[in-house]
Amino acid sequence: MRSSTVTEDRLQDFTENGLLPQKAVVHWRAPLAEHEEPQPEADQIVSFLAFHERGLGYPGHLFLRGVLNKWEVEPQHLNPNGVLHIAGFVTLCEGFLRIDPHANLFRAFFYG
Q: Where is the Transposase (putative) gypsy type domain (predicted)?
């Protein structure tokens, strides 16, 4: 495993492009170069830039928070396509089906 290459400047670029909230709002930070794997403090979560490129925002949608809680996972346990699937599912439910997204329906669609 290698250390992250994300820098404060790169995170600031994401902020300027509207993909990440201002640092003063959500208190993001770049990982420390000497850490080979994420080591968040107790009040922090790990997020990946690829998630934000695919539409993840903070605070996360209530459905996302519910799925993470129900299956006892954290955002860093997802892959970018997982975030995209969740976002697409929420859009399908709210925008087209006019229902609230539900974890059991999500499971039926994506995990049979």
A: 46-110
Q: pLDDT tens, position by position, for the chain (112 residues)? A: 677 889 999 999 999 999 998 999 888 999 888 888 888 888 888 888 888 888 788 778 899 989 988 989 888 888 888 888 898 999 999 999 999 999 999 999 888 6
Report the predicted TM-score, pTM, of the whole model to 2 decimal places.
Answer: 0.65
- Can you tell me the distance from the alpha carbon of 98 to that of 52, in angstroms, rounded to the nearest whole number? 25
54 domain residue, yes or no? no
Residue-wise DSSP of 65-94? HHHHHHTT--GGGS-HHHHHHHHHHHHIII
Residue 52 resides in a domain: no
**What is the spatial distance between Cα 59 and Cα 43, in angstroms, rounded to a whole number?**
14
